[in-house]
């Protein structure tokens, strides 16, 4: 048996009395890659934050190289040889690549405070070379592409000679080739004797990369062991805690002939190219693509948040003005953005005001512009009840005190109050628990039944396949393929998203893997 | 708001209560501490504080209650209230308006140039206005019955225009409000001085001067204007579409825009309200001083912002009520008045004022922490 | 691709471009503008605002603001004068103590902002009032005069040809530029201004860095005050008031952002300061009404900030991530 480098022992962590982690224990061995999978909110990031010294556990302890380990801040974790590669980048765009890499420990000239720029550049060059990244150490990070930035972040982690590395969804902004490249680097790091924890939602990647796996659900370790014992379907079942068929409600097609939304030849330099999409009355159209494939950007253009250069967007055959969310709303569009906290909700504002925000003009008199608060409260209350929103006080309770799922219901509620004919949902189930997800799906089914057209963006193929009448697959700013319900296949959709040919055979797969 | 018993160390003032009345290690608070906390967290905290302050001062400065002094306090209060209400709108937006002082200066000059009935050639021949807008026979409409309405409208227009320019720059060019209003503060106060060559313009119409004079006992035009304005502002903020949108934009501009709030229009309107209030305050101040003054209000910025902060309005935006502004202004004026009556020199008064604002800002931080702990 | 690069270059260097344009313009209006004497005057006038603006740049880099520098100048100058005139202290000691007073005011700001979590704007607005009040309290609002030993300093030349105030200014700039550009402290300051949360995660002691900038700003304000009194020899009750705005304007003209993370001492703030003095000198040369000068100044600052905000959005557009593969 290999040497255990690090172990969690009975870690428990509560936030506001709610268990985020409950009695979590597992071990990381030297020279192994450990996959950590679980749904959003299963406790993965809390676990990582505890290891990184960002949070302290309420109970339990950690053992590092045989000794108890309790980092109080990120610096302590870092000097103990633990480094993170986060999903969201922690780079300083106004500094150069080499400065970013050595930000915590600049090499100095002797004992002076002056930075030894030559040494810094040299070591940076060496790192970049080992990552096969062909950029100058002097270039500012703001001039790099997302993929390059991700690799710089990895270089930063490697620069410290850490022997425990944590990768938290590092591939979301990488192309297929960059991903494969990253994996080969990770494998060689492992072979050098480093230990790696890898967190990802892309289970195929997990399957092909890791040696061991731990499955988390609701803050508890459900199962763990060598990856050979965990085929993908088993991982999924363990993660969601029930057979996959029970996660989604029954769907019926309600699609009518009337086209509600039509985008023709929409292009914007560097973002999307020649996109054509239609959504019919009562139809749920899915948009799948890897992060950064252009689907979110396109949704923002549809709703008028971002501009586009060419093409046209029509709602019920009438052209929709560009860059004007107000007009879009008037024409019956609604937009649930991917980031609730920044763009969906006013976190410091009461629930009622959030639900009412979009429809305020409908509740105010034309002449005096006074808002009819009583009528607003009544209708908002009805919406909240129908969405089964759990809250104490609609009028005074602030949104930020609600759970993720209930926050999402507030976002949905504020658009439903406006009775939209076309609903754009960007990752509406991200970061909410399985129960709340199910309720969101039910709401979608209900809306489709009532004739609302829905454009449903998601990174989870399973939910798209279960909920949509049609799935549009994106890659690098283009629509690659449209799947009708009868053609849905997880593998085929993924292959398209990775820009591989739809035809699929064992020989081909072997060839592709061999070349990479 | 729902008051809950919380496990949290009490604020300093009541620690003695806890030691005396509580067994050690217990987490629930004694009733006294809760009352103290409830008072601290109350919307009316500043008002209670003001009343307490007055009660303490009464035996020390009996002249406080002299009718002359009450009249003095009130006549100091109305114009400051008016301009502070304007600032409240911008603060709710998480903005700031440094240019209010220059709006007051510009307004008072423009109004006086329209209304004055006589100008001294010795003082004004060097002014660029001399000969066209300003002559020995006075301003544009000097002596005419139209002087008063046109003059006041011109003053209000000045506030609206400067407010529009500020709002437009902030909303459309995304320039930081601090710099935008700093520049317009510099620009328009320099302009007011340039137009008059630093001289005050006197000989304003009698009717104009009556605005700030007592009509009956403590009742004056200034009082009526300020009270009406406060009521309108209160309704605007709490009951109307604009008010609700103002808070929304102040909390999160992007999210509001996506929810169909015309954020740019809201921002521009808020800065225009701020400018308008400053120019109404200019009417009150200049009618009281009986002149148009190019340096009017130049030292008032700290009073305006200070009164708002004392009232509990944070610079972070999304928070604020007209009642808070009223309490803040009231406290600030009482404080200044009492310090004056103690015959302290102006620099001591300034230092005390500064310290009080500091304490108010600290209290706000403390209140936020308690509120967070209660969640 | 080349075209966008050219646009990007001009936008990123808009301050320098503006500087050259204004320079040439005044040269054309008044040829006497191009004299060594005139440049020396400009530099000499720029020195004290420049010194304060360097401190302000440190504060702005963290996304803060320091409105108290004008009053700090005043209080420190007053303390220095009183120590020389009434306590008969040697000039050097008096200067050192007055610099310490500047450090003290900076420390108060730093404490309130990083420990008590007050907003920089409010904190420094209040210390502005209190510091000036204290200065007026010491002097009973009577002007302070300085002995010849102080005023003669302004005529002394370092190395035989550099006037003392310019020498001090340049030394401050040199030290500050090295600190910001070449030391660990300086580079981490940029990181803090760029993204506070990430900086914390990278293990940078953000509070300490932020606190240090207010102390530096206070120290340099005191130094700026001293440089001024060597030149004018007398300090009245209004000394330094409003100078904080000139310092902010100089830094912002030099490309510093009020949101933090962007700005340099050299060339940025130096360029901004010299530009302000150059414009003022140029307006005198061009015989412009002194009442109009502040109006023009305000207009130019507005222009600089306007260009800055337009360029920020433009650069953002140019640097928006590219999804499409060419």
List the helices and strands and how they pair.
The complex is a heterotrimer of chains A (516), B (375) and C (326).
Chain A: E1 4-15, E2 18-29, E3 33-38, H1 44-51, E4 59-64, E5 67-69, H2 74-79, E6 82-85, H3 97-101, H4 117-130, H5 146-158, E7 164-168, H6 176-191, E8 195-199, H7 203-209, E9 212-217, E10 220-226, H8 232-240, E11 259-268, E12 272-280, E13 284-288, H9 295-303, E14 310-315, E15 318-319, H10 325-330, E16 333-336, H11 340-344, H12 351-356, H13 373-386, H14 404-416, E17 422-426, H15 434-449, E18 453-458, H16 461-467, E19 470-475, E20 478-484, H17 490-497, H18 506-515
Chain B: H1 15-21, H2 31-41, H3 45-60, H4 67-92, H5 100-115, H6 121-124, H7 147-172, H8 177-196, H9 206-209, E1 214-216, E2 219-220, H10 221-239, H11 241-251, H12 253-258, H13 263-289, H14 301-311, H15 322-341, H16 346-374
Chain C: H1 2-12, H2 14-29, H3 36-61, H4 69-85, H5 91-115, H6 120-139, E1 144-145, H7 148-151, E2 157-158, E3 162-163, H8 164-182, H9 184-194, H10 196-201, H11 206-232, E4 234-235, H12 243-253, H13 265-285, H14 293-318
Antiparallel strand pairs in C: 1-4, 2-3
Q: If you compute it from the alpha carbons, what radius of gyration of chain B comes out, rounded to the nearest whole angstrom?
A: 23 Å
Largest interface: B-C, 39 and 44 residues
Profile the largest sheet of chain A. 6 strands, mixed
Main sheet overview of chain B: 2 strands, antiparallel
Proportion of residues in β-strands of chain A: 15-25%
Count of distinct strands of chain B: 2
CATH architectural designation of the largest domain in chain A: 3-Layer(aba) Sandwich
The helical percent of chain A reads: 25-40%
Which term fits the overall shape of chain A? globular
Give the count of helical stretches of chain B: 16
Poorly predicted runs of chain A are: 508-516
């Amino acid at each position: 048996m290999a040497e255990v480098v690090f172990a969690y022992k009975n870690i428990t962590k509560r936030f506001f009395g709610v268990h985020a982690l409950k009695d979590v224990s597992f071990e990381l061995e030297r020279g192994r890659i450990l996959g950590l999978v679980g749904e959003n909110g299963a406790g993965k990031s809390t676990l990582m934050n505890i290891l990184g010294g960002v949070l302290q556990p309420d109970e339990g302890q950690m053992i590092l190289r045989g000794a108890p380990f309790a980092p109080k801040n990120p610096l302590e974790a870092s000097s103990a040889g633990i480094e993170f590669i986060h999903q969201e980048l922690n780079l300083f765009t106004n500094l150069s690549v080499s400065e970013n890499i050595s930000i915590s420990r600049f090499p100095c000239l002797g004992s002076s405070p002056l930075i030894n720029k030559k040494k810094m550049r040299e070591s940076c060059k060496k790192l970049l070379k080992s990552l096969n990244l062909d950029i100058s150490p002097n270039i500012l990070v703001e001039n790099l592409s997302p993929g390059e930035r991700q690799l710089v972040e990895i270089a930063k982690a490697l620069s410290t000679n850490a022997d425990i590395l944590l990768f938290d969804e590092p591939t979301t902004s990488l192309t297929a080739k960059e991903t494969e490249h990253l994996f080969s680097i990770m494998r060689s790091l492992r072979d050098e004797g480093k230990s790696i924890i890898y967190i990802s939602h892309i289970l195929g990647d997990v399957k092909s990369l890791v040696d061991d796996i731990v499955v988390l659900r609701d803050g508890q370790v459900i199962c763990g062991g060598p990856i050979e014992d965990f085929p993908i379907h088993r991982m999924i079942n363990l993660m969601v805690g029930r057979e996959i068929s029970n996660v989604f409600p029954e769907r019926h097609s309600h699609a009518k002939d009337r086209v509600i939304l039509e985008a023709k030849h929409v292009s914007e330099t560097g973002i999307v190219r020649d996109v054509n999409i239609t959504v019919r009355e009562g139809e749920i159209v899915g948009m799948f693509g890897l992060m950064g494939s252009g689907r979110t950007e396109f949704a923002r253009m549809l709703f008028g948040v971002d501009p586009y250069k060419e093409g046209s967007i029509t709602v019920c055959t009438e052209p929709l003005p560009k860059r004007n969310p107000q007009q879009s709303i008037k024409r019956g569009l609604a937009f649930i953005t991917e980031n609730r906290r920044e763009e969906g909700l006013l976190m410091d504002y009461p629930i009622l005001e959030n639900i009412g925000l979009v429809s305020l003009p409908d509740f105010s008199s034309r002449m005096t512009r006074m808002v009819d608060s009583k009528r607003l409260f009544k209708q908002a209350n009805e919406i909240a009840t129908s969405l089964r929103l759990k809250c104490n006080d609609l009028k005074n309770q602030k949104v930020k005190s609600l759970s993720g799922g209930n926050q999402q219901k507030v976002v949905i509620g504020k658009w439903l109050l406006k009775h939209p004919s076309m609903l754009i949902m960007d990752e509406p189930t991200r970061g909410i628990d399985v129960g709340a997800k199910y309720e969101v799906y039910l709401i979608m089914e209900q809306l489709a039944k009532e004739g609302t057209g829905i454009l449903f963006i998601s990174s989870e193929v399973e939910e798209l396949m279960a909920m949509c009448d049609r799935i549009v697959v994106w890659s690098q700013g283009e629509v690659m393929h449209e799947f009708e319900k009868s053609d849905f296949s997880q593998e085929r959709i993924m292959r398209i998203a990775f820009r591989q040919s739809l035809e699929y055979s064992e020989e081909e797969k072997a060839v592709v893997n061999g070349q990479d | 708001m729902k008051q809950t018993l919380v496990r949290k160390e009490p604020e300093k003032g009541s620690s003695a209560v806890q030691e005396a009345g509580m067994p050690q290690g217990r987490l629930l608070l004694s009733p006294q501490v809760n009352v103290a906390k409830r008072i601290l967290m109350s919307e009316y905290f500043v008002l209670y504080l003001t009343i307490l302050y007055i009660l303490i001062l009464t035996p020390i400065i009996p002249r406080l209650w002299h009718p002359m002094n009450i009249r003095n306090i009130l006549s100091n209060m109305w114009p400051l209230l008016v301009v502070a209400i304007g600032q409240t709108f911008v603060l709710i937006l998480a903005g700031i308006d440094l240019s209010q002082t220059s709006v007051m200066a510009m307004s008072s000059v423009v109004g006086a140039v329209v209304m004055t009935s006589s100008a001294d050639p010795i003082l004004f021949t060097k002014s660029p206005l001399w000969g066209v807008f300003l002559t020995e026979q006075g301003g544009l409409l000097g002596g005419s019955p139209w002087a008063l309405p046109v003059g006041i409208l011109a003053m209000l227009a000045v506030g609206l225009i400067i407010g529009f320019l500020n709002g437009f720059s902030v909303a459309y060019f995304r320039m930081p409000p601090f710099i935008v209003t700093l520049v317009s503060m510099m620009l328009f106060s320099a302009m007011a001085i340039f137009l008059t060559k630093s001289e005050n313009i006197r000989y304003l119409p009698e009717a104009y001067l009556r605005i700030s004079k007592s009509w009956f006992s403590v009742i004056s035009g200034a009082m009526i204007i300020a009270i009406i304005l406060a009521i309108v502002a209160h309704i605007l903020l709490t009951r109307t579409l604009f008010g609700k949108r103002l808070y929304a934009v102040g909390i999160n501009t992007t999210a509001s825009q996506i929810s169909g709030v015309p954020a740019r229009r809201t921002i521009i309107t808020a800065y225009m309200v701020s400018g308008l209030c400053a120019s109404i305050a200019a009417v009150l101040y200049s009618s009281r001083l009986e002149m148009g003054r190019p340096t009017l209000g130049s030292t008032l910025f700290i009073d305006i912002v200070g009164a708002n902060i004392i009232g509990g309005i944070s610079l972070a935006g999304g928070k604020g009520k007209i009642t808070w502004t009223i309490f803040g202004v009231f406290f600030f004026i009482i404080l200044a008045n009492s310090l004056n009556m103690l015959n302290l020199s102006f620099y001591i008064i300034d230092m005390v004022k500064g310290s009080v604002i500091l304490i108010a800002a600290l209290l706000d931080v403390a209140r936020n922490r308690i509120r967070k702990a209660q969640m | 691709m080349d075209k966008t690069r050219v646009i990007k270059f001009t936008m990123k260097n808009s301050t320098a471009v503006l500087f050259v344009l204004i320079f040439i313009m005044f040269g054309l209006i008044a040829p006497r503008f191009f004299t060594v004497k005139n440049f020396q005057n400009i530099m000499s006038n720029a020195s004290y605002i420049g010194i304060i603006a360097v401190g302000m740049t440190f504060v702005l880099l963290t996304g803060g603001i320091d409105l108290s520098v004008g009053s700090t100048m005043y209080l420190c100058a007053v303390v220095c004068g009183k120590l020389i005139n009434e306590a008969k202290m040697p000039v050097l000691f008096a200067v050192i103590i007055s610099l310490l007073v500047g450090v003290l005011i900076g420390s108060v700001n730093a404490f309130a902002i990083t420990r008590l979590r007050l907003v920089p704007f409010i904190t420094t607005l209040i210390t502005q009032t209190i510091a000036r009040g204290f200065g007026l309290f010491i002097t009973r609002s009577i002007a302070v005069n300085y002995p010849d030993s102080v005023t003669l300093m302004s005529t002394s030349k370092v190395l035989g040809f550099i006037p003392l105030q310019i020498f001090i200014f340049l030394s401050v700039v040199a030290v500050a530029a090295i600190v910001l550009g070449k030391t660990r402290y300086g580079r981490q300051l940029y990181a803090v201004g760029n993204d506070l949360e990430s900086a914390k995660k990278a293990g940078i002691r953000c509070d300490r860095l932020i606190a240090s900038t207010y102390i530096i700003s206070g120290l340099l304000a005191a130094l700026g005050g001293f440089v001024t009194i060597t030149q004018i020899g007398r300090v009245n009750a209004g000394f330094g008031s409003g100078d904080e705005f000139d310092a902010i304007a100089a830094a912002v003209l030099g490309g510093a952002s009020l949101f933090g993370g962007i700005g340099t001492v050299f060339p940025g703030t130096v360029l901004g300061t010299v530009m302000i003095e150059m414009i003022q000198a140029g307006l005198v040369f061009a015989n412009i009404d002194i009442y109009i000068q502040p109006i023009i100044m305000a207009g130019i600052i507005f222009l600089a900030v306007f260009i800055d905000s337009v360029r920020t959005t433009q650069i953002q557009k140019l640097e928006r991530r590219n999804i499409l593969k060419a």
